[in-house]
Write a structure and sequence with these properties.
By secondary structure, this protein is an alpha/beta fold. The chain is about 30% helix and about 30% strand. It is elongated. It comes from Micromonospora taraxaci.
Length: about 290
Protein backbone atom coordinates (compact mmCIF):
# COMPACT_ATOMS: atom_id res chain seq x y z
CA UNK A 1 0.00 0.00 0.00
CA UNK A 2 1.45 3.37 -1.05
CA UNK A 3 -1.21 5.70 0.43
CA UNK A 4 -2.41 6.04 3.99
CA UNK A 5 -5.18 8.45 2.99
CA UNK A 6 -6.63 9.58 -0.33
CA UNK A 7 -9.20 12.36 -0.70
CA UNK A 8 -10.80 13.48 -3.96
CA UNK A 9 -13.11 16.48 -4.06
CA UNK A 10 -13.86 15.91 -0.39
CA UNK A 11 -16.37 18.28 1.23
CA UNK A 12 -18.16 18.56 4.56
CA UNK A 13 -20.95 21.11 4.92
CA UNK A 14 -22.96 22.27 7.93
CA UNK A 15 -26.00 24.08 6.57
CA UNK A 16 -24.62 26.74 4.26
CA UNK A 17 -21.13 26.66 5.76
CA UNK A 18 -18.40 24.41 4.42
CA UNK A 19 -15.92 23.15 7.01
CA UNK A 20 -14.05 21.42 4.19
CA UNK A 21 -14.62 21.97 0.48
CA UNK A 22 -13.28 20.20 -2.59
CA UNK A 23 -10.16 18.85 -0.86
CA UNK A 24 -7.91 16.56 -2.89
CA UNK A 25 -4.75 15.01 -1.46
CA UNK A 26 -2.74 11.82 -1.21
CA UNK A 27 -0.94 11.09 2.08
CA UNK A 28 1.83 8.50 1.67
CA UNK A 29 1.98 5.49 3.96
CA UNK A 30 4.96 4.83 6.22
CA UNK A 31 5.68 8.49 6.99
CA UNK A 32 5.28 10.91 9.87
CA UNK A 33 3.25 13.61 8.15
CA UNK A 34 2.76 17.19 9.33
CA UNK A 35 -0.56 18.80 8.39
CA UNK A 36 -0.40 22.57 8.75
CA UNK A 37 -2.58 25.50 7.79
CA UNK A 38 -4.47 28.49 9.21
CA UNK A 39 -7.54 28.24 11.40
CA UNK A 40 -10.53 27.24 9.27
CA UNK A 41 -8.43 25.46 6.66
CA UNK A 42 -10.25 22.19 7.36
CA UNK A 43 -7.52 20.25 9.18
CA UNK A 44 -9.65 19.00 12.10
CA UNK A 45 -12.57 18.20 9.81
CA UNK A 46 -10.29 16.20 7.53
CA UNK A 47 -8.94 14.13 10.43
CA UNK A 48 -12.44 13.49 11.79
CA UNK A 49 -13.58 12.34 8.36
CA UNK A 50 -10.52 10.09 8.16
CA UNK A 51 -11.34 8.29 11.41
CA UNK A 52 -15.03 7.92 10.61
CA UNK A 53 -16.37 10.35 13.22
CA UNK A 54 -17.89 12.41 10.39
CA UNK A 55 -19.31 11.44 7.03
CA UNK A 56 -18.57 13.50 3.91
CA UNK A 57 -21.18 15.67 2.24
CA UNK A 58 -19.60 14.95 -1.13
CA UNK A 59 -16.42 13.60 -2.65
CA UNK A 60 -14.43 10.52 -1.72
CA UNK A 61 -12.11 9.58 1.13
CA UNK A 62 -10.20 6.32 1.44
CA UNK A 63 -8.13 5.36 4.47
CA UNK A 64 -5.73 2.39 4.27
CA UNK A 65 -7.49 1.25 1.13
CA UNK A 66 -11.02 1.29 2.57
CA UNK A 67 -13.87 3.59 3.53
CA UNK A 68 -13.34 5.13 7.00
CA UNK A 69 -15.24 3.47 9.84
CA UNK A 70 -15.63 4.79 13.39
CA UNK A 71 -13.88 2.57 15.90
CA UNK A 72 -11.66 0.89 13.32
CA UNK A 73 -8.79 -1.02 14.91
CA UNK A 74 -6.56 0.14 12.07
CA UNK A 75 -6.88 3.84 12.91
CA UNK A 76 -5.99 5.59 16.17
CA UNK A 77 -7.14 9.13 16.83
CA UNK A 78 -6.22 11.75 19.45
CA UNK A 79 -8.54 14.75 19.26
CA UNK A 80 -7.48 18.35 19.82
CA UNK A 81 -8.35 18.42 23.52
CA UNK A 82 -6.59 15.05 24.15
CA UNK A 83 -9.78 13.57 25.62
CA UNK A 84 -9.56 11.37 28.69
CA UNK A 85 -12.15 10.51 31.35
CA UNK A 86 -11.56 12.64 34.42
CA UNK A 87 -13.09 10.18 36.91
CA UNK A 88 -11.19 7.15 35.60
CA UNK A 89 -7.69 6.25 36.69
CA UNK A 90 -4.80 5.68 34.31
CA UNK A 91 -5.19 1.94 34.88
CA UNK A 92 -8.93 2.19 34.15
CA UNK A 93 -8.12 3.74 30.77
CA UNK A 94 -5.83 0.83 29.93
CA UNK A 95 -8.41 -1.76 31.01
CA UNK A 96 -11.08 -0.02 28.93
CA UNK A 97 -8.72 0.09 25.93
CA UNK A 98 -8.03 -3.64 26.28
CA UNK A 99 -11.78 -4.37 26.49
CA UNK A 100 -12.66 -2.31 23.41
CA UNK A 101 -9.76 -3.21 21.11
CA UNK A 102 -9.03 -6.82 20.06
CA UNK A 103 -5.55 -5.80 18.89
CA UNK A 104 -4.68 -4.14 22.21
CA UNK A 105 -1.00 -4.43 23.20
CA UNK A 106 -0.94 -4.57 27.00
CA UNK A 107 2.85 -4.69 27.12
CA UNK A 108 3.17 -1.54 25.00
CA UNK A 109 0.60 0.32 27.10
CA UNK A 110 2.20 -0.58 30.42
CA UNK A 111 5.69 0.19 29.10
CA UNK A 112 4.68 3.66 27.92
CA UNK A 113 2.89 4.47 31.16
CA UNK A 114 6.05 3.58 33.08
CA UNK A 115 8.32 5.48 30.66
CA UNK A 116 6.38 8.73 30.98
CA UNK A 117 6.07 8.39 34.75
CA UNK A 118 2.30 8.07 35.12
CA UNK A 119 0.87 6.56 38.30
CA UNK A 120 -1.63 3.85 37.27
CA UNK A 121 -3.81 4.71 40.27
CA UNK A 122 -3.97 8.45 39.49
CA UNK A 123 -7.32 9.83 38.28
CA UNK A 124 -7.05 11.39 34.83
CA UNK A 125 -8.71 14.56 36.08
CA UNK A 126 -5.74 15.15 38.38
CA UNK A 127 -3.12 14.84 35.64
CA UNK A 128 -1.32 17.79 34.06
CA UNK A 129 -1.98 18.72 30.45
CA UNK A 130 1.20 16.98 29.33
CA UNK A 131 0.33 13.84 31.30
CA UNK A 132 -3.17 13.72 29.81
CA UNK A 133 -1.67 14.04 26.34
CA UNK A 134 0.71 11.15 27.06
CA UNK A 135 -2.18 9.02 28.35
CA UNK A 136 -4.28 9.76 25.26
CA UNK A 137 -1.35 8.92 23.00
CA UNK A 138 -0.74 5.65 24.87
CA UNK A 139 -4.36 4.57 24.53
CA UNK A 140 -4.36 5.39 20.80
CA UNK A 141 -1.01 3.70 20.14
CA UNK A 142 -1.73 0.53 22.15
CA UNK A 143 -4.49 -0.30 19.68
CA UNK A 144 -1.59 -1.06 17.33
CA UNK A 145 -3.16 1.01 14.53
CA UNK A 146 -1.66 1.19 11.08
CA UNK A 147 -2.51 4.90 10.97
CA UNK A 148 -2.35 7.30 13.92
CA UNK A 149 -4.12 10.67 13.56
CA UNK A 150 -3.26 13.50 15.96
CA UNK A 151 -5.18 16.79 15.94
CA UNK A 152 -3.11 19.60 17.51
CA UNK A 153 -1.92 17.28 20.30
CA UNK A 154 0.67 19.67 21.76
CA UNK A 155 -1.03 23.04 21.27
CA UNK A 156 -1.75 23.59 24.97
CA UNK A 157 1.44 22.05 26.37
CA UNK A 158 4.43 23.85 27.83
CA UNK A 159 7.79 23.45 26.00
CA UNK A 160 9.04 20.61 28.21
CA UNK A 161 5.77 18.68 27.94
CA UNK A 162 5.82 19.21 24.15
CA UNK A 163 9.35 17.88 23.91
CA UNK A 164 8.49 14.80 25.96
CA UNK A 165 5.35 14.13 23.92
CA UNK A 166 7.18 14.47 20.61
CA UNK A 167 10.00 12.25 21.84
CA UNK A 168 7.45 9.57 22.67
CA UNK A 169 5.88 10.00 19.25
CA UNK A 170 9.22 9.52 17.49
CA UNK A 171 9.87 6.37 19.52
CA UNK A 172 6.48 4.95 18.57
CA UNK A 173 7.05 5.72 14.90
CA UNK A 174 10.45 3.99 14.99
CA UNK A 175 9.30 0.95 16.97
CA UNK A 176 5.87 0.33 15.44
CA UNK A 177 6.36 1.53 11.86
CA UNK A 178 2.88 3.08 11.79
CA UNK A 179 1.86 5.96 9.54
CA UNK A 180 1.28 9.14 11.54
CA UNK A 181 -0.53 12.34 10.53
CA UNK A 182 -0.25 15.23 12.99
CA UNK A 183 -1.84 18.64 12.55
CA UNK A 184 -0.18 21.55 14.32
CA UNK A 185 0.42 25.30 14.19
CA UNK A 186 3.84 24.76 15.75
CA UNK A 187 5.95 24.31 12.64
CA UNK A 188 9.22 24.03 14.58
CA UNK A 189 7.82 20.95 16.33
CA UNK A 190 6.75 19.44 13.01
CA UNK A 191 10.24 20.00 11.62
CA UNK A 192 11.65 17.94 14.49
CA UNK A 193 9.48 14.87 13.98
CA UNK A 194 7.94 14.90 10.48
CA UNK A 195 9.51 13.69 7.26
CA UNK A 196 6.59 14.75 5.04
CA UNK A 197 4.60 18.00 5.05
CA UNK A 198 1.21 19.11 3.72
CA UNK A 199 0.13 22.76 3.74
CA UNK A 200 -3.66 23.05 3.61
CA UNK A 201 -5.22 26.47 3.00
CA UNK A 202 -8.96 26.95 2.43
CA UNK A 203 -9.33 23.17 1.91
CA UNK A 204 -6.78 23.14 -0.88
CA UNK A 205 -3.33 21.57 -0.77
CA UNK A 206 -0.86 24.33 -1.47
CA UNK A 207 2.21 22.11 -1.27
CA UNK A 208 2.99 18.54 -0.24
CA UNK A 209 6.28 16.71 -0.18
CA UNK A 210 9.15 15.25 1.77
CA UNK A 211 10.60 17.78 4.20
CA UNK A 212 14.17 17.35 2.94
CA UNK A 213 13.05 18.03 -0.62
CA UNK A 214 11.04 21.11 0.38
CA UNK A 215 14.00 22.54 2.28
CA UNK A 216 16.36 21.88 -0.63
CA UNK A 217 14.19 23.41 -3.36
CA UNK A 218 12.84 26.60 -1.75
CA UNK A 219 14.83 29.82 -1.70
CA UNK A 220 14.48 33.48 -0.89
CA UNK A 221 15.79 35.78 -3.64
CA UNK A 222 16.67 39.40 -2.84
CA UNK A 223 17.76 41.85 -5.53
CA UNK A 224 16.96 45.00 -7.44
CA UNK A 225 13.27 45.58 -8.15
CA UNK A 226 12.17 43.83 -11.31
CA UNK A 227 9.26 42.28 -13.16
CA UNK A 228 8.66 38.71 -11.95
CA UNK A 229 6.74 37.58 -15.03
CA UNK A 230 9.77 35.82 -16.46
CA UNK A 231 11.71 33.90 -13.84
CA UNK A 232 14.42 31.43 -14.65
CA UNK A 233 13.68 27.98 -16.03
CA UNK A 234 12.29 25.62 -13.41
CA UNK A 235 11.41 28.40 -10.93
CA UNK A 236 7.91 28.78 -9.50
CA UNK A 237 7.00 31.99 -7.68
CA UNK A 238 5.41 31.35 -4.29
CA UNK A 239 5.44 34.81 -2.66
CA UNK A 240 6.71 38.25 -3.58
CA UNK A 241 7.08 41.69 -2.04
CA UNK A 242 8.67 44.86 -3.37
CA UNK A 243 10.01 48.23 -2.25
CA UNK A 244 10.77 51.05 -4.66
CA UNK A 245 14.22 49.59 -5.34
CA UNK A 246 14.19 45.97 -4.13
CA UNK A 247 12.31 42.75 -4.83
CA UNK A 248 12.10 39.86 -2.38
CA UNK A 249 10.80 36.58 -3.76
CA UNK A 250 10.20 33.10 -2.41
CA UNK A 251 10.59 30.55 -5.18
CA UNK A 252 10.60 26.83 -5.60
CA UNK A 253 13.35 25.86 -7.99
CA UNK A 254 14.11 22.52 -9.61
CA UNK A 255 17.21 23.94 -11.27
CA UNK A 256 20.24 25.91 -10.01
CA UNK A 257 19.71 29.66 -9.67
CA UNK A 258 22.47 31.10 -11.85
CA UNK A 259 21.45 34.78 -11.97
CA UNK A 260 24.25 36.46 -9.99
CA UNK A 261 22.14 39.59 -9.41
CA UNK A 262 20.10 37.70 -6.82
CA UNK A 263 21.16 37.13 -3.24
CA UNK A 264 20.00 33.56 -2.63
CA UNK A 265 19.08 32.42 0.90
CA UNK A 266 17.86 29.07 2.18
CA UNK A 267 14.57 28.91 4.08
CA UNK A 268 13.54 26.97 7.14
CA UNK A 269 10.28 25.03 7.20
CA UNK A 270 8.34 27.80 8.91
CA UNK A 271 9.41 30.29 6.23
CA UNK A 272 8.16 27.90 3.55
CA UNK A 273 4.83 27.31 5.28
CA UNK A 274 4.22 31.04 5.79
CA UNK A 275 5.07 31.78 2.16
CA UNK A 276 2.48 29.33 0.90
CA UNK A 277 -0.14 30.54 3.37
CA UNK A 278 0.52 34.16 2.45
CA UNK A 279 0.51 33.45 -1.28
CA UNK A 280 -2.78 31.56 -1.03
CA UNK A 281 -4.56 34.39 0.80
CA UNK A 282 -3.31 37.21 -1.38
CA UNK A 283 -0.51 38.24 0.96
CA UNK A 284 1.98 37.12 -1.64
CA UNK A 285 0.72 39.44 -4.35
CA UNK A 286 2.89 42.10 -5.92
CA UNK A 287 2.90 45.05 -3.55
CA UNK A 288 4.99 48.05 -2.44
CA UNK A 289 5.60 48.00 1.31
CA UNK A 290 4.40 51.04 3.22
CA UNK A 291 7.18 53.37 4.40
CA UNK A 292 9.64 52.04 1.80
CA UNK A 293 8.58 53.91 -1.30
Amino acid sequence: MTSALIAEGLSKRYGRRFALKDCTLDIPAGHVVGLVGPNGAGKSTLLQLACGLLGPTSGRIEVLGARPASGSAQVGFVAQDTPVYANLSVADHLRMGAHLNPSWDTGLAERRIAQVGLDPAQKAGKLSGGQRAQLALTVAAAKRPNLLLLDEPVAALDPLARRNFLQGLMELAAEQGMSIVMSSHLVADLERVCDHLIVLVASRVRVAGDVDDLLATHHRLVGRRRDTANLGTGQALIEQSHTAVQSTLVVRSTAPIVDASWQVDRLDLEDIVLAYMSGATGGGSDRVLEGQR
